[in-house]
Specification:
The complex is a heterodimer of chains A (about 230) and B (about 220).
Chain A (H helix, E strand, L loop, with lengths): L2 H30 L3 H15 L5 H14 L2 H13 L1 H9 L1 H7 L10 E5 L4 E6 L8 H4 L4 H4 L1 H6 L4 H7 L9 E6 L5 E5 L11 H7 L2 H5 L12
Parallel strand pairs in A: 1-4, 2-3
Helix pairs in contact in A: 4-5, 4-11, 5-6
Chain B lengths: L27 H16 L4 H9 L3 H6 L2 H15 L5 H6 L15 H10 L18 E4 L18 E11 L2 H4 L8 E9 H5 L8 E7 L3 E3 L1
Antiparallel strand pairs in B: 1-2, 1-5, 2-3, 3-4
The chains are: A mainly alpha (about 230), B alpha+beta (about 220).
Chain lengths: ~230, ~220
């Protein structure tokens, strides 16, 4: 790679990282000095409301739903149920949308779903190389890293490298199956149940399940282990 | 189109950076543009494929420079103008043009809630027959359309095996441009990592892509 391109990418990365790092502070910042984007969104919202296209309450509902109600805890409950109930797991692997709907989760970008199961010799990893397709109904909206150029570019060509960076060491004889979400199918990884969890309840198991394990970049850690 | 959005296999794009305790939205405006985006799509002047293509049309340098929701903001402004929901002048001033009629019906919270539950149309259609069956070999076409496509460059010309038939879906390459839904079967196709990336790849690894019938040829 020539140095100009590297400089460009480093600069782009730095800007992106800065944006992410400043994210937490932006709320405070834009009280005083609103960002360009904040102003433009505000203007667009006012315009759409004034023109009668959209009620503000509709926007409130959409934001609230995805900020507070839909998220990876939904997926964690699905995984925990599958771990404790073999009949449920069978239904989940055969017809994920119906099995997920049994638990009451039906909200968009999850209607056409496939659940892929990890095992001792198979590890699954989900990506969307073209944009940011993600199973909203069970995981909520994707984190920044999932949408990043770094992850999207590399997950298909170097999945083991990504896994290593995420602290996931796989034996050579494990098959890595990458799922590139190029259509309307959405993928959820059913991680392996960690050792030492025989005495845990379904609710306690759900607490162990991480978003990253359901995307496939890591495994579910045993109880008490720091993630 | 062969754009920068088609990232599979690019190298040296930097480390994957995990953020601890990441919030859903990093600022209030990100949530608002998310809501606006969903609401405008419910109004139905454009579809998800059109929407995706609009992102792909962002100039490459802008695509990299912008954060994710900055892209959403830009394309919602563009789409709203392009499909006549607002005028360029309204977008500039932030106020309705004098004398412009109020839009009806207004997208209300009740309608938004109902639409959230609705989802993507059924994938069952017995009238459309599949060209491939599970277990069959298939080759991804070598094609370079200048419009929207969901066939990534890294898979073109490669040989795979059909592992699932997901049913029938609209074809993005035509649907994005309002040239018809051209509904057809979508399959999961497994490509060996070595077929895609050469002999340095692990012989055990594979990548599954979801492929429309029109992306595949018999092999």
């Amino acid at each position: 790679m020539d140095s100009t391109r590297r400089t460009f990418l480093t600069a782009a990365g730095a800007v992106a990282a800065q944006n992410v790092a400043q994210g937490q502070d932006r709320e405070h910042e834009h009280q005083a000095v609103p960002s360009d984007a904040a102003l433009r969104v505000k203007a667009l919202e006012s315009l759409l409301v004034e023109k009668g296209l959209v009620d503000r309450a509709a926007l409130d509902l959409l934001v609230d739903r995805f900020e507070h109600k839909v998220g990876p805890r939904n997926g964690a409950r699905v995984v925990a149920r599958a771990w404790v109930d073999p009949a449920y797991k069978k239904r989940l692997l055969a017809d994920a949308p119906s099995a997920i709907a049994e638990l009451g989760y039906t909200s968009g970008q999850g209607e056409h779903m496939l659940v892929v199961e990890n095992g001792p010799k198979v590890h699954n990893l989900v990506v969307c190389t073209l944009c940011s397709c993600y199973p909203w109904a069970v995981l909520g909206l994707p984190p920044v890293w999932y949408k990043s150029a770094a992850y999207r570019s590399r997950a298909v060509i170097d999945p083991r490298g990504i896994l290593r960076e995420c602290g996931t060491q796989l034996d050579e004889d494990v098959e890595v199956h990458v799922w590139d979400s190029t259509a309307e199918l959405r993928y959820l990884v059913l991680p392996e149940r960690p050792a030492g969890t025989d005495n845990l309840s379904e609710a306690e198991l759900a607490e162990l399940v991480t978003r990253d394990a359901m995307v496939g970049v890591s495994k579910v850690p045993p109880p008490g282990e720091k993630v | 189109m062969n754009g920068v959005h088609d990232m599979g296999g690019l190298q040296d794009m930097g480390p994957v950076q995990h953020e601890k305790q990441e919030p859903v939205f990093h600022a209030a405006w990100e949530g608002r543009i998310y809501g606006i985006d969903r609401a405008l799509r419910f109004i139905g002047k454009w579809n998800l494929d059109t929407w995706r293509h609009q992102i792909e049309l962002l100039p490459p340098a802008d695509y990299f420079r912008m954060t994710y929701y900055e892209r959403w903001l830009r394309i919602n402004e563009q789409l709203a103008v392009k499909y006549g929901l607002v005028t360029p002048k309204e977008l500039e001033t932030g106020a309705p043009d004098p004398g412009s009629a109020k839009a009806t019906p207004t997208l209300t919270a009740a309608v938004a809630a109902q639409r959230l539950g609705r989802g993507i149309p059924s994938s069952h259609d017995p009238k459309v027959s599949p060209r491939f069956t599970v277990g069959q070999r298939a080759r991804a076409r070598n094609m370079n359309p200048t419009g929207h496509t969901r066939l990534p460059r890294y898979a073109r010309g490669k040989l795979g095996i059909i592992t699932h038939d997901h049913g029938v879906y609209s074809f993005p390459d035509t649907n994005a441009h309002f040239q018809g839904e051209k509904r057809q079967h979508v399959y999961s196709v497994r490509f060996a990592a070595r077929e895609l990336w050469g002999e340095n790849a692990s012989p055990r690894d594979s990548v599954h892509l979801d492929m429309w019938d029109d992306y595949l040829e018999h092999a």
